[in-house]
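Checked the freezer inventory, then went back to the computational side. Two predictions to log before the end of the day. The first one is the construct we discussed on Monday; recording sequence and tokens without edits.
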Amino acid sequence: MTTITPNASGLTALEERLKQDLTWLELPAKSWVPRRIVDGESVVDVVIVGAGMAGLVASAMLKRLGVDNHLVLDRARAGEEGPWVTYARMRTLRSPKELTGPAMGMPALTFRAFYEAQYGSEAWKALDRAPRTMWMDYLVWYRKVLGLPVHNEASVERIHARPDDLFALDIRERGTLRKILARHVVLATGRDGLGGAYVPPLADGIDRRFWAHSSDAIDFAKLRGKRLAVVGAGASAMDNAAAALESGAARLDLFIRRADIPRINKFTGIGSQGVVHGFVGLTDAWKWRFLDHTLRAQTPPPRQSVLRVSAYPHAHFHLASPIDELVVERDHLVVTTPKGRYATDFIIFGTGFKVDLALRPELAEFAPHIRFWRDRFPAPTDMDNAELEGSPDLGDIFQFQEKVPGACPALSRLHCFNYPATLSHGKLSGDIPAISEGADRLARGIVRRLFVEDREIHFANLKAFATPEIIGDEWIDADALHQHAE
């Protein structure tokens, strides 16, 4: 395979073009939010938790709209935010390369511009999908060229609501504990942002040396020559199976509950600006109907991911094979399905994520008050869906809402800009296609709130503003001219 050397000067030229575009558009807007000092501490207007794609574009939108007093915190080291170079194991992204993603409508900020600047238009035409690690490179560049205020190796240990309409965040940054005061907090924390990995109960009591979740850090080199099992038929299951095979697994058994692998990506098929902007306007019943149908159909794994596994003759696809029992026998596991018993040395669960606030200690103070769809919307007949029932019931700018009105007003300033927001807002906060539109909705809503909250200051500034544009020597009063003539 021919290796193409990136053109550094091309990227420099792109950065100059982006700088010029921003200048022509007068972006970012001038800073306008009045600064606050409370208890001798500077108050941050917005803290964004998570510097993956969603957190970066949320930050970019706030900066664009003149909210420069904000921070983005991520527990990962710089360049390792999100899944792209950690537990994501696909070769390329699923999304078509042409999607503009976090570019906020700016051509020079797209992945295509980033790629073509370094490799040229012919290489772009030949490219199938964005390579996974290059997408990470793009996000690192995006952060740099926009000058986003990201702090790495900074984890949010706890969020507290104060009686003065502020949050106090306990932050551990590179081993040091400190507090931050903030007016709004945005959770841009990805697929597991309101919980964690889902592993079926059959793994309870099984020693962790025998199993992992697909989002775990897995040392595949240690699985060389071993028998491996993978549970699931989604993208992560296929990618982990492929990674194990490519690392030299002696045998791979893929256990799939369904009688067939899902074939059709439903939401992609109806993707449009109508869905992006119109979904939020649907009634609750229609939102549920759309997503229940999509979830029941399931999202198929990418074709290339499946071919990556089936290329190995010692990879075995077991359809209609839910695991009935998983037990340890001496130094290995035995998997029992309706079709038989299988010995394996290690099993990986590609079984997704769950919403479980008990797994998010930073939200402990708010968890009892957060309203979920199950708290107010009975599932329609024949549409029981645990995932939808466990979705947070969010307001118009992704803010949490109270189970009991008045019990926790601070929730209106705590925003859920991650995957579990889908039932309330559509697919605007977890995937590439409409992430800019989601960030725009979030940022404009926060801007509106900040301005309204500071209305007395802005009105006082309006009354105090006294810079003249007309100084009085631009004309002569006609009566004065007439009197002078007399």
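The second is the one RB wanted added to the comparison set:
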Amino acid sequence: MKHDENGLDMELADSLTDNLLEITQELGNSSDIAIREIQIDLGDHRSIEGAIVYMAGISNLYSMIDTLLACCKNGAQQHLNPEELLGYLENVVVSSGTVEHIDTLDDLFESLLSGESILLLDGCKRALAIGTKELIGRQVEEPNVQSVVRGPREGFTEVLQWNTAMLRRKIKDRNLWMETMSIGRVTKTEVVVAYVKNIVSEEVLEEVKTRLSLIDIDAILESNYIEELIEDKQNTPFSTVFNTERPDVIAAGLLEGRVAILVDGTPFALLVPALFTQFFQSSEDYYQPANFSSLIRLLRVLSFGLALLTPSFYIAVTTFHQEMLPTTLLYNLASQREGVPFPAFVEAIMMEITFEILREASVRMPRTVGQSISIVGTLVIGQAAVEAGLVSAAMVIVVSITAMSNFVLPAFNLGITIRIIRFLLMILAATFGLFGIFVGIIALVVHLCGISSFGVPYMSPFAPFHLSDQKDTLVRFTFPNMITRPKVFRQKNLVRQKRR
């Protein structure tokens, strides 16, 4: 972008021809630039030349045509100079969308490339940015990743304005504040920070704003860019920023005192601070009876343990601790492994890698064949490997249980973390047996207790322990018993509802 000799943004020229030439040159005569030159009749055989500039495809063509016709119509005030005429058009003629004054080329290009139409007049060093942005995107659909049996079926889309509107529908309160900022030197991506003013902790909010303001990068194409740039730098595989594509999850988080970050161009919004227990919770837990939701949460915790420890425990027992197995089971496993040429660790690594390949293949394949490839490939390869004597039938069962347990978890990124740690525990089990597994678990717990998310301990409310916050962790109490919000976020207002 051009600047003057003092490094300041260049102002618009008073010549329409010079301004149009500058626009076309700066944008490289791109084919999607549309320029419509107009004559505005002032009466008494007088007129002023003008032009409306917009970007084809991202500006609302019909709104632009209405503005164009309104500017060209007869009846403009007589004896107006260009500056007065611009004010008259702003206040009287242009009635569609928002209107903003533009004085510099930087502001002009930012508005133009955002989908707004620019009205220029000859002899005027200012312009009008008319709100004709075309909101083009995928319609509101059911979330693909975080689906529920009972609950809202709407999910965020790639259009930021629609996402903020869905939040407004759920929280109709004047204390829901949304602040918009532009991040990315090249992409200039709009990012919205949403919070409930009378609930959120000012310390957490200021920390979020500070980290966002320190981002200096050329492009923000998805919310993961923001996530990696603002998360606590603690060298951990665990995510300290929660992401979701469900508006009801974001609304519930805001009402607990958290801060939401919405990024234009992606359906995944961010929620901070994030706690470890949050990754075991689903929005459906609050749409089902409390006893059923508590049972499902405990099942998720059990699945977490199975997905993390099942292969390593099998390796340790069959390699170092055969005396722990009942005699009949030991004979069966020994007979299955009689013709297997590899140790249990190599078996497990082979099957885990094979399953990871099948999982990735099913994701990348076209949807019409992806699911069938995953199911048929798993059955065929597993059965063929057992018949060929490469692996034992018990190992196929172990890997299958591990995979199914991984899919029970509602947070996809937690499943990725488990897959990483699982291989480390398998190495410890193959080297030191159960002793290695116990050391790995202790190290994992110590690591989790040392993590924080925007100043909030990651393992809260277990470490540090908060008795009053245990009502919505591993189990969920009924709503009449959840009087206060979780205290770990240091909110201004802790009272969620009045006592009966």
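For RB: The two ends are 63 Å apart (CA to CA). The chain has 15 helices and twelve strands. Let me know if you want it refolded.
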